[in-house]
Amino acid sequence: MARILSALLIPAFILLTGCEEATEPDTTPPVVTLTSPVNGAFLSGPTSISPVITDESAIRTVYFLVDGDTVATDTKAPFTFVWNVGFWADGNQHTLLIIAVDEANNSGQSNLISVTVSAEATLTIQPKAPSDGREHEENASVTFSWYPLQGSQEYQLEIDSDSLFSPADQTLSTTDTLFMVSSLASGPHYWRLRAKGMNGRLSTWSEKRVFFMGKAYWVLRLDRGRAEWINGLVETADGGALFIGPSFTDTTQIMEDWWYGKVSASGKVLWKKTLTQPKSDYGNAVLRTAGDEYLLFGGSSDPNRTMRLIKITESGGLIWDQTYGKTDSSSWGVNLVGLPTDASAALGGELNNKPAILKVDGSGAVQWSVQFPMVNAGSCYLSMRTDHVLIGTASHHLIFLSWSGSVQSQVEFPDSLLLRRPAILSGENGLLIPYLSNGKSGLLKTSATGTKNWSYMAPAGTELASFMDWFGNGIMVGGSRNGQCYLAVFSYTGSLLWEKELVPGRIGRIIRTASGGLYLSGTTHSNFRHPTSDFLIMKTDKNGNGLPTLAGRSTVLSTLFSRKPGHRNGDDLYPKK
Q1: pLDDT given for residue 562 in this prediction
Q2: Which of 46, 76, 148, 301 is the most buried (most CB within 10 A)?
Q3: What is the pTM of this model?
C-alpha cells in the first residue's frame, strides 16, 4: 500500500513543480507620478522633487531629468531629490521628468511637467574648513573642506594672498568635498569656492574666508642697543614688510646709521643691514618700485648734509647708491613717491638750503628738480594724487606740481601752521594735511585744491605722527598718548569715531596691507630719541585689534618693551613662535 501511495505522489510533485517554473515573467512597468513641483511652477531656490512610484516588484533605480538630461539618480526609497535651480537660473522654462526602473528591468516615466526658473535664483556652496581667521603652523599642509552641493559634478577652489582674486594665486578643481594644499607662503591667504553643475553652469562664489600661515597678528621689537625708531615701512610682494630708520651708534646721539631690513608676514626677521658714514646717516623712507625692487631714501652727513638714495633688491642686495646736493650747503631727504609701473620716483626734502622736489629715473639720475624760495624753511614732504599730480607741503605752503615738474598752483596758510608731514588723500577726493602749531599737532582738512574745510587740534599729551585714509571710511591717525601707541579714526567731517591705546611706544607709520589689515611701525618709547627706544613693528586687523595687551601679560611685555640704556637685547616677537 505504501509503494502505491508513493507512486501516486511523485507524479503529482513533478506536476506542481513544473507549474511553478512556468510562472509568467514581470513585464509591467512602474507607474510614476511627479507630484512636486506642479506644472507651471515658478522656482527661485532649491526645490524638492517628489515622485510617487508603484510597481509589482522592487524599484532598482530612479532617474531625475531636466530638459532631457539626467542630473541625479537614486537607488533607495523614498526617491526624492533636491534640485538646485541656481544652475538653471535663466528666466526660461525647463521640463522635468522622472524615470523609474524595477528589478525586472521594466521602466516607466512620469508625466512631463514644465517650470520656470527665476533669472535671479542663486546657488552658493557652504565652506567648512579652514575657519575664518584660523592660524596654521608655517610650512604645514592645509585641508580645505565644504558641504556637498546636490547636482554638482565639480568644485573649483581659489586661494589668494589678498582678497581680490585678480587673478588668484592658485585655482584648483576636484570632484571631492575636500582638498589638501601644501607649500603656502607665510602670511594671510583668502579662499573661496564654487560648484559646477551637470549642465556646465557655475554657482556663485562662496563667502570669502581668510586663514594665516604663521601668526596673524604680532608685535616685534628690534634693538641694536641705542635709540632707534622706524621712519619708513612698505609691504613686500610676499606680504612681509621692509623697514628703515635711524639707529644711533653712540651715547651722544650724534652718530647715526641707516638701519633697514625685512620681516616676514608672520613677524620673523629675515635680514637686517646698516649703512654708515663717518658722521651721520638718517634713513627716512622706502618705496617699492616696478620689478619688486626698493628705493631707500634719507640723508647723510659726510661731512655736509646731502640727500641719499639707494636701490636694493628684496633680499637687501645693493643695486646703486646716489647722493644729491652741494657740498657747501644743507640737503636732506624726507620721503618719496612713485608709480607702481615705473622705476622712476619723485623725492621730497631739502636741497641746498631750500625745500625741493627732484624727479629721478630708474638709475637715480636727476630728470628735473624744483626748489622753492623759502630759505631755511625745512624740507618739502610729498604725496601724489591718482592723476599723478604731486602735492608738496613745505613750511606753511601747499604746492601742486605735474609729474613733469611744472608748478600748477600754491596755497599759503597762516605762518603758525607748520606743514611737517605729507598731505593724505581722503576717500572723497579731499586732502588731509598734518600740521604743528605752538608745539601741538593737528589735522587740517581741505578740498582737493587746498580750500580749508575744518581743522582738529590734538589735546595736550597726545601726539599725531602718522596718517592714512581708513579704507574709504574715514581718517586714521597714529601717534602716542600717555606713553602708549595711540590709534584713532575720524570721519571725513572731523568727528572722532573711535580711539584706543595699544602697547607702549609711538606709532610713526601706518600702512594698509594687501589683505585688508594694518602694519604699524615706530618706536617702543613715546620719546623716539630716548636712549631706550627701539624699532617697533605691529601687525593688526583694520581696527588695530589682535595685539597683546598689558592685562595678564605684564611679565612678557615688560621684557618686550623695557630695557636699560646701552643694553643690547636683540629682537623680541610676541606671541612667540
Answers
A1: 52
A2: 301
A3: 0.68
CA of 204: how far to CAs of 196, 341, 401, in Å?
Answer: 10, 33, 46
Q: How many CA atoms lie within 13 A of 90 on its CB side?
A: 9
CA torsion 244-249-250-252 (nearest 10°) is -40
Give the residue from 243, 251, 311 showing the smallest Cα distance to 273. 243
State the amino acid at position 92 in one-letter form.
N
Fold observed for domain 127-213 = Immunoglobulin-like (2.60.40)
Phi first, then psi: what are they for 12, rounded to 5°? Answer: -65, -40
Determine the residue type at 449. Answer: T
Using an 8 Å Cβ cutoff, are 481 and 496 in contact? Answer: no
The CATH architecture assigned to 218-426+515-562 reads 7 Propeller (2.130)
- What values do phi and psi take at 14, rounded to 5? -60, -40
Burial readout 546-564 (b: 16 or more C-beta within 10 A, e: otherwise):
bbbeeeeeeebbeebbebe
By the 8 A CB rule, do 465 and 508 touch?
yes
CB neighbour class for 386 (10 Å; exposed up to 12, middle 13-18, buried from 19)? exposed
DSSP letters, 353-384, are: TEEEEEEE-TTS-EEEEEE-S-TT---EEEEE
- Number of neighbours of residue 305 by Cβ within 10 angstroms: 21
Q: What is the pLDDT of residues 435-451, one digit of tens each?
A: 888 888 899 899 988 99
Whether 302 shows a pLDDT value over 70: the answer reads no
pLDDT in tens, 19-72: 455 568 888 899 999 988 999 999 988 888 889 999 888 899 999 999 998 888
Percent of the chain exceeding pLDDT 70 equals: 85
Domain ranges of the chain: 31-117, 127-213, 218-426+515-562
Q: Which CATH class is domain 31-117?
A: mainly beta
396 SS3 class: coil
Same fold, 31-117 and 127-213: yes
| Cα distances (angstroms) measured from residue 270 to each of 48, 243, 273, 538 | 57, 12, 11, 16
